[in-house]
Design a protein that fits this description.
By secondary structure, the chain is an alpha/beta fold. It has helices at residues 21-31, 40-53, 64-74, 91-99, 118-130, 150-159, 220-233, 257-267, 270-288, 322-331, 381-388, 400-412; strands at 57-61, 82-86, 103-107, 137-141, 164-167, 194-198, 211-215, 294-296, 310-314, 353-358, 361-364, 389-392. It has a nine-stranded mixed β-sheet, with helices on both faces. The structure holds pyridoxal-5'-phosphate. Residues 63-65, 89-90, 92-93, 141, 167, 169-170, 198, 200, 211 line the site of pyridoxal-5'-phosphate (PLP).
Length: 415
């Protein structure tokens, strides 16, 4: 038997408030017997989250994945439509494209933000414009809490009048290039036409499972109509009639009143969690940042990333591989992971197009070659990030001693 030292340290696990806010809201729902389906916690959670991020309106749903699905429907995406989607992400970003019968085209990352490359996006637009098949939407992701290059991406999409769906599942609380000193915060998730957040167990705040769709636009009436429509679809599309009348396909995607109670409590400690996540990232930068071949994840000094997970890259100059780091940590009962495997490398999306970057050139899928036989990583920007990356334990319950221990184990590998 392998020696297990003490409690397991997780990548990220649920962290309820020390004050017990979540329990108070749940208790209130029990007392009023507002267990399900809806109730005041759901309404209040929508309002409170919208207020926190500065969104015009919000709909609380059963998962972030459900929110992406509803977002695509709200944008009118259907059978045969093209959707441009960031390749480096979790599969939940891309699966809903298939739910609505549309066709994903995957877009590579840029080195600067690890998120969607505006140059590859431009190239994809040019290619699909020539084919006479412009996309109906673009899905951009803020991975690990790092804000994507929204200025450039929104400008390209604006030129083609194509709406943007922001997958901010991992970046709740990330401020993008705001004038933070003036209090002009603008949060990721509120730049696109639709934004989504996730409250899954590993995210920066959790409801045990849940998601939120937010909507923004110049026409306030259209925004509130769109969100109202999402609430309607996600409660089985029941028309206003005593008898059960259905004119559209419905879904059972609404958040329960108990779950929303947990969310209201968690929202109160979001800023605290962000502060702790950023402290964890700083600690890794200080301890590991100057090791040979190590590069910590990027951060834009004009933005404030929530640092949901701390991630490092190991170049070929490093004396150890990502696998060595993960194995050394696992021996000590500490969790770590590779980066998300890009969607264009996933067997389930093997037939989809990909526009990527290699040595500064924007190329087609056929121009990339596999550089790692084990994982199937290729030499695109996202492929190389995937090959070189390690997600480090970033649990907000980690103590200073935990952090010293983790850094110590990793540093030993360089000695
Ligand atoms: C977690 C996650 C989702 C899905 O959210 P769920 O609430 O788990 O359905 C979508 N996209 C990204 C990038 C995620 O990390």
């Amino acid at each position: 038997m392998r020696k297990m030292s003490g409690k397991r340290i997780f990548l990220a696990s649920p962290h309820m408030s020390e004050e017990g806010y979540e329990k108070e809201y749940i208790e209130d729902a029990f007392q009023k017997n507002f267990i399900a389906p809806l109730g005041e916690n759901v309404n209040a959670f929508e309002k409170e989250l919208a207020q926190k991020v500065g969104a015009q309106d919000a709909a609380a749903l059963s998962a972030g994945t459900a929110a992406i699905h509803m977002g695509l429907l709200a944008l009118g995406i259907g059978k045969g439509d093209i959707v441009f989607c960031q390749s480096l992400t979790f599969s939940a970003t891309a699966n809903p494209i298939r739910y609505v019968g549309a066709e994903p085209v995957f877009i590579d990352s840029e080195k600067e933000t690890w998120n969607m490359s505006p140059d590859a996006l431009k190239k994809a637009f040019e290619k699909y414009e020539k084919l006479g098949k412009l996309p109906k939407a673009v899905i951009v992701v803020h991975l690990y809490g790092i804000a994507a290059n929204l200025d450039a991406i929104l400008s390209v999409c604006g030129r083609y009048h194509v709406p943007v769906l922001e997958d901010a599942a991992e970046s709740l609380g990330t401020v993008y290039r705001g004038e933070m000193t003036n209090g002009h915060f603008k949060y990721t998730g509120t730049f696109g036409n639709i934004g989504i957040y996730s409250f899954n167990g590993n995210k920066i705040i959790t409801t045990s499972g849940g998601g939120m769709l937010v909507c923004n636009g110049k026409d306030a009436q259209a925004v509130s109509a769109a969100v109202q429509k999402v609430r309607f679809w996600s409660t089985q599309a029941r028309e206003q009639a005593k008898h059960y009348q259905h004119e559209e396909i419905g879904y059972n995607y609404r958040m329960s009143n108990i779950v929303a109670g947990i969310g209201r409590g968690q929202l109160k400690v979001l800023d605290e969690r962000i502060a702790k996540k950023r402290e964890i990232f700083d600690c890794y930068c200080k301890n590991l940042g100057s090791l040979k071949g190590v590069q910590m994840m990027p951060h834009d000094v004009h933005s404030r990333d929530n640092c949901w997970l701390s991630v490092m890259l190991l170049s070929d100059d490093a004396p150890v591989t990502p696998h060595d780091v993960m194995e050394a940590l696992e021996k000590e009962n500490i969790e770590s992971r590779p980066l998300w495997k890009p969607m264009h490398l996933q067997p389930v999306f093997a037939d989809c197009d990909f526009i990527g970057e290699k040595d500064g050139n924007m190329l087609e899928k056929k121009d990339f070659s596999v550089i790692d036989q084990n994982t199937g990583a290729d030499n695109s920007v996202s492929g190389i990030l995937f090959k070189q990356g390690v997600c480090l334990p970033s649990d907000t319950k980690n103590t200073t001693q935990d952090m010293e221990r983790i850094c110590g184990i990793i540093k030993t590998l360089w000695e």
